[in-house]
Amino acid sequence: MKKKVVLAGGTGFIGQYLEEKFTDLGYEVVIISRQPHHIAWSNKTGIISALNGAEMLINLAGKSVNCRYNDKNKEEIMSSRTKTTQILGSALLACETPPPLWINSSTATIYRHAEDRPMTETNGEIGTGFSVDIAKAWEQSLFDYQLPHTRLVALRMAIVLGAEGGVMKPYFNLVRFGLGGAQGSGNQMFSWIHIEDVYQIILFLQERTDLEGVFNLSAPHPVSNREFMEQLRKAMNRKLGLPSPKWMLEIGAILIRTETELIVKSRWVLPERLEKEGFHFTFETIEKAFHQIILKQQSIS
Ligand SMILES: NC(=O)c1ccc[n+]([C@@H]2O[C@H](COP(=O)([O-])OP(=O)(O)OC[C@H]3O[C@@H](n4cnc5c(N)ncnc54)[C@H](OP(=O)(O)O)[C@@H]3O)[C@@H](O)[C@H]2O)c1
């Protein structure tokens, strides 16, 4: 019988990448999603039978945070994370042969705005505010479950970089239009991780049956926003890039219906646990990541 992996919310940027990788490894990939050709969130028996005998459940579901934080969006950002997690937890309890590993997304935004020192799993301080409340409730809804046969892991992901989607397209456009300077003060830290390393970490966690709990997924060399933009301009051969001061970001965010927090919060996170456990990053520096992303982008466009 084919090995099986279940991707919940597996139709997005990270899900599609993982679907391709696991398919290449010979896995049957089963997706739970709101789209009609996948298993629906309301289909309890379908979810239970998908999970039975699977090697792993990876939950990526969540309304994008790239929107205005009005009441309706806030409610959906929260419930699309906590309720989907609860549906999966209840389904696992009903499984005869549940997967030995449940990986749920979380976010590095759970830590406070940090310009003074990096946050690790052991010494990081949890922040305050809407995005942090989401992250806390999301993790809580995972760790509320105690499953005798399934390890639980929450991935506190930094901003995921890859040619296939996510934030790279808007950043490429800013640089192309000559706006590739620092955003806000430029001093805010930009913690990031290459999407291939996200996939490799999932394989690492699958193999290492002694590991569970919370992991920071961020490259070991985070950069400031100024350095991120500088390296991107360099990789794209653009000498000049106008900066965007905070007031300009505020206006722009309203126009494109997003929030400046996504750009100006200083996310300074280190992958202390993964490094201690011996994980080796393929893309440990931003130069290396941009080099691969730009080559890949050229090959797919
Ligand atoms: N990409 C990053 O930089 C990053 C960083 C940290 C954390 N994360 C988290 O990691 C997860 C995956 O990231 P991603 O970049 O792959 O996100 P994405 O491209 O936006 O995909 C998220 C998936 O969630 C599902 N979804 C959206 N709204 C939903 C709703 N109201 N109810 C149920 N499902 C819903 C969608 O699936 P259907 O439309 O098929 O239902 C979508 O494919 C997200 O939860 C995200 O918050 C991402």
Short précis:
The chain is 41% helix and 15% strand.
Describe the structure.
With 301 residues, this protein is α/β, with parallel strands linked by helices. It has a single domain, classed as NAD(P)-binding Rossmann-like Domain (Rossmann fold), CATH 3.40.50.720. The protein has helices spanning 13-24, 44-51, 71-93, 130-143, 168-176, 195-207, 225-235, 246-255, 261-264, 272-276, 286-300; strands spanning 4-8, 28-32, 56-59, 101-107, 151-157, 159-162, 165-166, 189-190, 192-194, 213-217, 223-224. The strands form 3 sheets. Strands 2-1-3-4-5-10 form a 6-stranded parallel β-sheet, with helices on both faces. Strands 7-6-9 form a 3-stranded mixed β-sheet. A two-stranded antiparallel sheet has the order 8-11. α1 (13-24) links the parallel β1 (4-8) and β2 (28-32). α2 (44-51) crosses α3 (71-93) and α7 crosses α11. The radius of gyration is 19 Å and the shape is globular. The two termini are 37 Å apart. The mean pLDDT is 95. Residues 9, 11-15, 33-35, 60-64, 76, 80, 84, 105, 107, 157, 159-160, 166 line the site of NADP nicotinamide-adenine-dinucleotide phosphate.
